[in-house]
Structure formats: C-alpha cells, structure tokens
Write a structure and sequence with these properties.
Length: about 120
C-alpha cells in the first residue's frame, strides 16, 4: 500500500482517516465550497432579485387579474424584459411571459397586458 501524504484542500493541514477525505473539518469544506461557488451564487442572487422586482411591478399594476399598462411605464419603474421565469403559449400561438405567478403579453401600441396565473397554487 502506497503512503501518500494527503492534505486539506483549504488549509493544507495533514489528513488522517478515509483515503478519499479532502478536508480536515466541516468548516474547511464549507469555506472551500463557498469560495468556489461564490460567482455562480452571486449571479443567481442577482437574477432572482431582478425576477422578484419584475413580479412586484406586475403585481402593483394588476387589478382583478387583468390590466393593460404602457410598456414604457414598466421600464421607468425598473422592469427588465430580459428576465422571466417561464413562457406560456396559447393554442392560438399567443405568448405570455411570466415572472412567477404574474405575466404579461406584449400588445401593439407599446402596451402590455398583465395577467395573474390562476393555475398557480
């Protein structure tokens, strides 16, 4: 059996125990993984913040589940049309973009038709 000196990937402390062990403690494992994933976590956090802001803007403009609003008004309030959670296409080919349970349909004349997804539970 080969004697290979193993060390913690975070603090370089000598490892004892299982041969597949990579870290000396949970703290080192957490620290290493948090640093490795920080960029992707930051990206996801930023996108989720945009989605929540979009939903809040749609929510504030919704009345009785259906509302027509100027697209420019949504943009002025900080709505980002590049981010949405899902798309719903009707049988007639009409495309609704959703931010969680609130969505919009792009209309002619610079308007958006805001709807609430009544199927959400």
């Amino acid at each position: 059996m080969e004697n290979v000196k193993r060390s913690c990937l975070e603090c370089n402390e000598s490892l004892h125990g299982r041969s597949d062990q990579k870290f000396c403690s949970d703290a080192c494992r957490n620290s290493f993984n948090n640093r490795e994933r920080s960029d992707s976590i930051l990206l996801m956090r930023n996108i989720n913040n945009i989605l929540r802001k979009n939903r809040k803007i749609l929510f504030t403009h919704s009345e009785k589940n259906k509302t027509k609003v100027l697209r420019e008004k949504l943009i002025q309030e900080g709505f980002n049309f590049n981010h949405f959670t899902h798309i719903y296409t009707t049988k007639k080919g009409v495309i609704y973009y959703f931010c969680y349970d609130y969505g919009y349909l792009n209309l002619e004349g610079g308007y958006c038709f805001i709807v609430k997804d009544l199927n959400e539970k």
